[in-house]
Amino acid sequence: MDQSPRDVIVVGGGISGLTVAWHLARAGVGVTLLEADHEVGGCMRSEHRDGFLLEKGPFNVIVRDESFEELLTSLSDQVQVVAASKAARARYIYRNGRLIRVPTNPAALVSSPLLSFEAKCRLLRGVLASRRGSDADYTIEDFAVRRLGQEVSDTLVSAAIAGILAGDIRKLSLRACFPSIWSFDRRARSPLAYALGTPFRKKKGGKRSRRWRGLVSIDRGLGALAEAAGKDLGEGLVTGCRVEALSLRDNGFGLTCVDDGGAARSWSCRRLVMALPAADAGRLLGTHLPEVGSILDSIVSAPLVVLNLAFKAPDVGHPMQGFGFLVPHNEPDFPLMGVLWADSAFPHHGRVGHRLIRVFIGGTRTPEVLSRSDDELLATASGALRELLQITGEPTLVDVCRYPAAIPQYHLGYVEKIERLRAAASSVNGLHLAGNYLEGVSINDCVRLGRRVAREIIDAR
Ligand SMILES: Cc1cc2nc3c(=O)[nH]c(=O)nc-3n(C[C@H](O)[C@H](O)[C@H](O)COP(=O)(O)OP(=O)(O)OC[C@H]3O[C@@H](n4cnc5c(N)ncnc54)[C@H](O)[C@@H]3O)c2cc1C
C-alpha cells in the first residue's frame, strides 16, 4: 500500500529519532516517524511489575545540557523529574573481594584503602602538574596513566569507564569519548588550576540558571519520557513498521516497510533522517552508498545484559546504601561489570520490604555473555553477589534484558571515521544521520544531536 508523500521521515523511534521528530513537529514540519517495535523508546524502556519500577535499559540521566532540559520542561505536564537520593553520592569499587567507598574529598582520599600510598602521592603530583597531551589521538588509559598514574587508571578510571561505556580504556579514544577533557588535556599543565579556574570561565560566557542538576530519573521511568515525546507526534508516529529497504530518488527517498503481519507499505519523503543503531543504518544505506555502509559496519558495539533482581529485604545483609559498585579491569575473576542499588539511588523504583538491584554483565570484557541462558546469567550474578552482599534468599523477581549492540565503542581513530562517514553521506541531498554512534552515547548526547539535526532541517526549508 502506497502512503502519500511526506516532507520528512525519521526512521527509528529511540530517543535520538524521537527528539528529531518532536522538534520538527513542534516547528510545524510535516514529519512521520517509523519505528519497528510496538513502542517507542528503543533501549529506553521501563516496566512496572510487582510494585517495582524496572528500568530495562538506561537507568538515569545526568542533566548536562540545555537541550535535555528543554525536553524535560516541555514534557513536564506528562512526566515528573525525580532527583537521585543523597545516598546515591556514595559509590563503591570492588577490590580484592570487598567493596570500598570511592573517596570524594582529600581527607577521605588520605585514609582510603582503595589506593596504595604511592598511588595517592602520584595522584596528587599529577593533579598539581603533569604532562600535557599531544594533538594526536590517544586512549583514555594513555591520558589517565600520564595524568593520574597507573594504579588510579587501573582501579578507578577503568571501573568508571566500564560503568559509562562498557568498554576498554586501552582502546577507547579520549578525544572521541570525552572531547572536553581532551581539549583541557592539551592545554593545561595543572588539572587543579584548570578546575579552579573553570567557574570563572563559565561565568564569563554567561551562567544559565538550571532547573535540574546531577542525576535524575522520571517518576514513571525513563520509558515514560519517550512515550510522552511519541504522544506529541500524534498521527505522525507509526509503530510496528520495520523499514526493510530504501531507494534514492531524484527528489527524495522511497522506503518499504513491513508490519508484523508481513504486509508491505511504501513511503516516500523529501528528507530522510536515519536514527538507527550503526549496524541497522549500515544495512539500509549500504546498498546505495557502499562507503557509508562499510564505515557503519566497522563500528564495534559492546554487548550488555542487564538483570533486575528483587529480594525480600531481610534476605539481604548488606545495607546497600549508595549508587552501587563498579568493577575495575584488574579484577578479571569477578564476573560482573557493576551493580546498581536501584532503590537506594531512586527509592521510587523500589517496594517496601524489598530490595531492588541492577546487575550488568558483559561489555567488551565478556563479549560471549549473550550466548548464556537466563538461568546461567542468574547463576553468575547470584554466585558473585551471595557473599559480597550477604544474600541468603532467592530473588522474588528476575528480569533479564539482552542488548547485542548496547554501546558503540569510540575506539582510536573514531573522530576521523565519523568525519569520513559524514562526508560520504553528504553526497545525498536530504539525508541526515542521528544516533548514539555519532556524538556521544548518553541520552543527553542523543537529545543534543537530535535537536541540532531538527534545526538543520528547519533552517534548510
Ligand atoms: C543497557 C543500557 C544502559 C544504558 N544506561 C544509560 C544511562 O544510564 N544513562 C544514559 O544517559 N545513557 C545510557 N545508555 C545509553 C543510551 O540509553 C543510548 O545510547 C540511547 O538511548 C540510544 O538511543 P538511540 O535512539 O540512538 O538508539 P536506540 O535506543 O537503539 O533506538 C533505535 C530504534 O530504532 C528502531 N529500529 C531499528 N531498526 C529499524 C528499522 N529497520 N525500521 C524502523 N525502526 C528500526 C529500534 O527498534 C529502536 O527503537 C544505556 C544504554 C544501554 C543499552
Question: Quick one: biggest sheet?
Answer: 7 strands, mixed
Overall form: globular
> What is the CATH top level name of the largest domain?
Alpha Beta
Ligands, deduplicated: flavin-adenine dinucleotide
The CATH topology of the largest domain: FAD/NAD(P)-binding domain
Number of DSSP E strands: 19
Gyration radius, in Å: 23 Å
Number of helices: 16
Q: Superfamily at the CATH H level of the largest domain?
A: FAD/NAD(P)-binding domain
Q: What is the count of structural domains?
A: 3
Strand-residue proportion: 15-25%
Provide the low-confidence segments as ranges: none
Percent in helix = 25-40%
Keywords:
461 residues; alpha/beta; FAD/NAD(P)-binding domain; protoporphyrinogen ix oxidase, domain 3; Polyamine Oxidase, Chain A, domain 2; 3 domains; 7-stranded mixed sheet; 16 helices; 19 strands; binds flavin-adenine dinucleotide
Explain the overall architecture.
With 461 residues, this protein is of the alpha/beta class. The protein folds into 3 domains: 6-46 and 64-82 and 219-299 and 410-460, FAD/NAD(P)-binding domain (3-Layer(bba) Sandwich), CATH 3.50.50; 115-204, protoporphyrinogen ix oxidase, domain 3 (Orthogonal Bundle), CATH 1.10.3110; 301-408, Polyamine Oxidase, Chain A, domain 2 (Alpha-Beta Complex). 36% of the residues lie in helices and 23% in strands. The chain has 16 helices and 19 strands. The strands form 4 sheets. Strands 1, 2, 10, 11, 12, 13 and 19 form a 7-stranded mixed sheet that branches. Strands 8-7-15-16-17-14-18 form a 7-stranded mixed sheet. A 3-stranded antiparallel sheet has the order 5-9-6. Strand 11 (242-249) and strand 12 form a beta hairpin. It is globular. It binds flavin-adenine dinucleotide. The site of flavin-adenine dinucleotide has 36 residues, from helix 1, strand 11, strand 14, strand 18 and helix 16.
